[in-house]
Amino acid sequence: MIKIIAEKPKRILLLEKQLESELKVKISNKGREFSLDGTPEREYFAEKIILAIDFGFEHSDAMLLNDEDFLFEVLNIKEYTKKDNLERIRGRIIGTERKTLDTLEQLTDCFFQLRNNQVAIIGPSERIKYAEEAIINLVKGTKQANVYARLEKHRPEPILDLGLKEKFKKANKNF
Questions:
Q1: Which pTM does this prediction carry?
Q2: Which residue among 35, 98, 124, 159 is least crowded, i.e. fewest CB within 10 A of its CB?
Q3: How far is it, in rounded angstroms, from Cα 137 to Cα 68?
Q4: What is the Cα–Cα distance from 99 to 83, expressed in whole angstroms?
């Protein structure tokens, strides 16, 4: 059984029944504390998804974490700067009318949410490293154009999947 303390329990409570059926875990709560009961594997995925929803991600984006190829990472802005003007740094990350975050999402194939002095990222395991580097560089003062150029340079070519990955996943589910 896993316990989670939520900052915004109403978001989770609104989706409780839907999450229970999708994640195949029993969710119970007392105030801000949620308990997850299921198989260890299901509890692990449910914990990540509920933490993402609590952070502010949309349900559909958080459900990507049900796939083992997706990760959920949280970066604390304060760890990468000594500056006191955190509001200005948050503004650099968001950009005018959220343009910086939207561009980062397009270039990294990841989803971003900003809360207080933390940035959360949901994305494919092979792309999350670049998304983290981009956020850290923005916090340290790198120009947005330079961050975008680096991401474009490291943008991988689409991988042609001949169906082997799907066959491998189906074979593993049978065990």
A1: 0.83
A2: 159
A3: 27
A4: 23
